[in-house]
Amino acid sequence: MREFLVEITTTIPEGTTDDEVDRRRAAEAVRARELAAAGHLVRLWRPVGELRSIGVWRATDDNELHEKVLGTLPLRPWMTLTVTPLEAHPNDPGRTGATS
């Protein structure tokens, strides 16, 4: 599986009811847990004072990431995404399988 850094900004459309927002947010939490259990959502952060998320996600390729992973999020229609494919850095202190 490849890793991707994904920045997500969610903008609620004007006129959306609080009930609809609450429903989608609850469904989003459930789906995030499912994707984490499946190994797709690795880590997720929210920058202090900002309404966006930054996460490390895994998928076999860009298509799977967009179609079968991020595309299944209930809030996806309201999201703007920036996706950066990642590769291991030789000096990463957390890298496994490194030889000296």
Please, could you describe this protein's structure?
By secondary structure, the protein is of the alpha+beta class. It has a domain at 2-15 and 26-77: 2-Layer Sandwich (Alpha-Beta Plaits). 28% of the residues lie in helices and 30% in strands. The protein has two helices and four strands, in the order E-H-E-E-H-E. The chain has a four-stranded antiparallel β-sheet with strand order 2-3-1-4. It is elongated and about 50 Å long. The two termini are 25 Å apart. The mean pLDDT is 94.
Q: What is the element layout, followed by pairings?
A:
Blueprint: E1 2-10, H1 18-37, E2 41-45, E3 52-59, H2 62-69, E4 79-86
Beta-strand proportion: 25-35%
How many β-strands, per DSSP? 4
Strand order of the largest sheet: 2-3-1-4
Supply the CATH class of the domain at 2-15 and 26-77.
Alpha Beta
And the CATH topology of the domain at 2-15 and 26-77? Answer: Alpha-Beta Plaits
Give the biggest sheet: 4 strands, antiparallel
Output mean pLDDT: 94
Give unreliable regions as ranges.
none
The CATH architecture of the domain at 2-15 and 26-77: 2-Layer Sandwich
Distance between the termini: 25 Å
Roughly what percent helix? 25-40%
Tell me the CATH superfamily of the domain at 2-15 and 26-77.
Dimeric alpha+beta barrel
Number of helices: 2
**Rounded radius of gyration (Å):** 15 Å
Shape: elongated
